[in-house]
Amino acid sequence: MTDSSTDPVDRFLDAARDETAELPFRLTGVMFQYYVVCERELWFLSRDVEIDRDTPSIVRGSDVDDSAYSDKRRDVRVDGIIAIDVLDSGEILEVKPSSSMTEPARLQLLFYLWYLDRVTGVEKTGVLAHPTEKRRETIELTPETSAEVESAIRGIREVVTAESPPPAEGKPVCDSCAYHDFCWSC
Amino acid sequence: MNDNYHVFSDGRIERQDDTVRVVTDDGEKKYLPVENAEAIFLHGQLEYNTRFVSFLNQEGVAVHVFGWHDHYAGSIMPKRGQTSGQTIVDQVRAYDDPGHRLKLAKAFVDGSIHNMRSNVTYYDGRGYDFEHVLEELEDARASLDGMGTIDETMGVEARARKAYYSTFDEILPEGFVFGGRQYNPPNNEVNSLISFGNSLVYANIVSAIRATALDPTVSYLHEPGERRYSLALDIADLFKPLLADRVIFRLVNRGQLTTDDFEDDMNSCLLNEAGRKTYSKAYEKTLDETIDHPDLGKKVSYQYLLRVEAYKLKKHLLTGEEYVPFRRWW
Fold it and tell me: How far is CA B271 from CA B8, B71, B119, B264, in A?
């Protein structure tokens, strides 16, 4: 499946720029969040391990996402790979229910900006918004943040192509994670 | 949460606005609040239509149908929320690898012997002398290691269950003669109770497996079935002593079930409607009992233990992390 001699970032970009080529591995925006929060969760996601959709934190996240800025945003799909919300002002929006998930959301947003820049040649600025806290943060693509995205792509590839997930590791987020009972039952 | 509803009357079951109602043949109307339901068990002769089935599908509620002699007839399962090809592939791979299949089959038997033992130990400490049975169960469990085939492993299970069932005649009061397991049809009250209890455990596990992307027909101890959800049989063996058998002991020893709750047919003996109601009520109460789960760090219901078991198996198949069967730890 993989050719270790080529950098995953180059291979991803090659495939993303060429409509006929198949992506070397599935990469979605939310994977960048999981990569920061929990690599084991990322591995489960990559294998379509289903989760209990009734978990309160999941329901809450979807509700905030659906209701925020509803009059000023448009859902835009690009190349079937990324799905972004574009504000009237042209900025790319990422909505988070709470500021505790800022770092993971920031990386996801950076990936979108990076993808637009590298694949479609469009330079955009991002907005990370916490509607419940009435707070917005501007996110920009720089050589440093680009390097962050590229290093995350390599890291994500490592995780999702592994035969088995990293072992369970107790973290504060475990308590509210939808995979909690799946992970910790033994 | 995760309530089961049992319908014993004959009549119609239908969608009525955003709920389900039963209209019995004598015109009585009963409503089932299904928003938190896991499944509806139909024991009586009931008519229903596609509107009812679509509604339950939308609500994610299963229907388990029981037919003649209250035999499990089949289930109408809500459509899957999510599927996972990888899970099915890994599940079948494990079946197809003789070593892996045997290991899982032994785990199921090992766990069920432990759980049978747990019931016997309880009565051994309450005035009965079951030392010899405990030894027999221990021997059977120890012999598992040396078994090289599924058939031999099945044999160990049968031997253990026979020893376990031999305690029933002593535990249960006079008038309830067991004399060994008979089914199709059950020949006496005790066999009828075991059959009924086991079928409820089985149906609940069918629901629990559905909550994962596991295929209920691909199993390890039992041969994958054409008409049966054989993976539910594998898992049911682990839980029968905890869920089904303890209810029998409790109801019969307290006189809540008597021989009046059964009807004799030509060559069978079955629970009558009152008996089935009494049993399923006590069974549902057992499912709601909770226990501190040391791994999960919270209290969980016995019913949730079934879900956890399905999770554990799926996790094992997907990640290779060890599968440790449910062993009663309290």
Answer: 12, 12, 23, 9
Interface test with B, best of A50, A55, A58, A175 (most B CBs within 10 A): A50
Q: Which residues form the domain of B287? A: 85-319
Nearest CA in chain A to B306: A185
pLDDT tier, A83 (very low <50, low <70, confident <90, very high otherwise):
confident
In a domain? residue A55: no
Of B82, B213, B324, the CB nearest to A186: B324
Is the pLDDT at A1 greater than 90? The verdict is no
Number of domains present in the structure of chain B = 2
What is the model's pLDDT at position B301?
Answer: 96
Kindly list the residues from chain B whose CB atom is less than 8 angstroms away from the CB atom of residue A39: none
Which tens digit of pLDDT belongs to each residue from A35-68? 999 999 999 988 877 665 554 555 555 555 666 6
Chain centre to alpha carbon of residue B218 = 17
Whether residues B67 and B105 share a domain: the answer is no
Same-domain pairing of B150 and B267: yes
* Residue B208 and residue B309 in contact, taking contact as beta carbons nearer than 8 Å: yes
Report yes or no on B327 lying in a domain.
no
A80: in domain? yes
How many Cβ contacts (< 8 angstroms) between chains A and B? 54
Same-domain status, B128 and B169: yes
Query: What is the bridge-based pairing of β-strands B62-66 and B37-42?
Result: parallel
B245/B130 same-domain check:
yes
Binding-site residue positions of B: 157, 222, 237
CB contact under 8 Å between A48 and B320, yes or no, is no
CB contact under 8 A, B311 and A185: yes
CA-to-CA dists, residue A180 to A3, A52, A166, A169, B301, angstroms: 34, 10, 15, 11, 16
pLDDT of A3 above 60: no
What residues of A are in contact with residue B324 (Cβ under 8 Å)? 186
pLDDT, tens only, A19-30? 777 777 888 899
Set of chain A residues whose Cβ sits within 8 Å of the Cβ of B312: 185-186
Residue A149 lies in a domain: yes
Same domain for B38 and B107, yes or no, is: no
**Residue the block writes with tokens 């970032």:** A9
- Interface with chain A: mutation pick from B315, B316, B321, highest number of A CBs within 10 Å: B315
Q: Would the pLDDT of B250 be above 60? A: yes
Residue closest to B112 by CA, chosen among B329, B328, B311: B328
For A40, name the nearest residue in chain B, comparing CA atoms only. Answer: B319
**B324 alpha-carbon distance from chain centroid:** 19
